[in-house]
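Quiz preparation item.
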């Protein structure tokens, strides 16, 4: 909004020329989201605690210590992230850019689904929430709509194509199949983050790391000069998503202030589904879907651990892990919660660096 209002005045007031620079607006988005989180966090947490009573229901089949240590902690803290992220993005992004609106649509749509799920869990005092099939259908509906919308904005030479990391000229034309593929990327990313959100600070840390990496990817992908130098498939307008990613970083850091062990609030599905879906949408826009699987490899690992656990138990009656997702396995092995969280963050940083290396290794 500020770009659309103030940049046209740059000829008369040279200071407004700053708004033409994505780097400036991305940095401003980080700080704005962070400040909003710090200001609104305490009253929102108090309000959630007063309304939710016993807080988020704790799974009986989870680690035993969670029943005692995490009982009474309010959920739906993802609303704080969404508020800071959305306001900051709307303030600093170019609102004529349709990619920004597409990613915000995915974020808000998945956020509403997560909110409904959290609301049912809290009001009914159980861990079930929305029926799994209904939630999946709703997520797919939002993601399919977004995939069609995103395709309509991209260059014809790229809109239905899948890029492959490490190979500069290889593109697979998926045709109309790109729509379900893009939808699966968004839904898969959303639910992978949701599965990772099981310990204080565990999901938001890697999300901040992944968003930082994709802020750089979006900036480079949307810049013809850098895109040509790095032999990337340039997507005009995609650079504006660096502002969205910056806002996500700022909102995530602000939330982490309250979610650090011992957590004052959980993000719930309101946060995990929306942020994972938004990150997936950024990957679809920038044509870096495979790179998302690398940068977000920690989320992939957590998801695979659940799939392996369920498949093994159904086929052989045996469990591969002491408990799934993977972070609970290490809890059962006796690792302290902060140890698991920090080591998983280190893994997330390593994977992000590997993912960014694909930008040059072609």
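Solution:
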């Amino acid at each position: 909004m500020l770009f659309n209002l103030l940049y046209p005045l740059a000829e008369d007031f040279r200071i407004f020329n700053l708004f033409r620079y994505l780097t400036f607006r991305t940095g401003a988005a980080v700080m704005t989201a962070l400040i909003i989180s710090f200001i609104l966090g305490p009253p929102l947490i108090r309000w959630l605690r007063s309304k939710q009573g016993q807080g988020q229901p704790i799974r009986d089949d989870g680690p035993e210590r969670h029943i005692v240590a995490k009982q009474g902690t309010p959920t739906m803290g993802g609303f704080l992230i969404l508020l800071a992220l959305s306001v900051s993005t709307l303030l600093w992004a170019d609102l004529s850019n349709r990619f920004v609106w597409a990613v915000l649509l995915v974020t808000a749509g998945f956020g509403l689904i997560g909110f409904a799920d959290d609301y049912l869990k809290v009001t009914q005092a159980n861990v079930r929430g929305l029926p799994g099939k209904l939630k999946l259908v709703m997520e797919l509906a939002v993601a399919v709509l977004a995939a069609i919308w995103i395709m309509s904005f991209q260059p014809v030479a790229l809109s239905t194509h899948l890029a492959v990391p490490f190979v500069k000229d290889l593109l697979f034309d998926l045709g109309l199949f790109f729509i379900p593929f893009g939808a699966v990327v968004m839904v898969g990313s959303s639910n992978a983050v949701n599965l990772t959100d099981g310990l204080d600070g565990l999901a938001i840390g890697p999300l901040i790391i992944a968003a930082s990496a994709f802020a750089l990817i979006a900036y480079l992908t949307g810049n013809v000069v850098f895109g040509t130098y790095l032999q990337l498939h340039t997507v005009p307008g995609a650079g504006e998503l660096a502002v969205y990613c910056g806002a996500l970083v700022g909102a995530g850091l602000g939330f982490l202030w309250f979610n650090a062990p011992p957590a004052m609030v959980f993000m719930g599905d309101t946060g995990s589904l929306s942020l994972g879906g938004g990150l997936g949408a950024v990957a679809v826009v920038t044509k870096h879907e495979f790179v998302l699987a690398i940068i977000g490899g920690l989320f992939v690992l957590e998801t695979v651990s659940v799939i392996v656990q369920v498949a093994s138990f159904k086929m052989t009656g045996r469990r591969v892990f002491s408990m799934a997702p993977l972070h609970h396995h290490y809890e059962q092995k006796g690792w302290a919660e902060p140890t698991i969280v920090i080591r998983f963050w280190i893994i997330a940083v390593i994977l992000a660096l590997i993912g960014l290396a694909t930008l040059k290794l072609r």
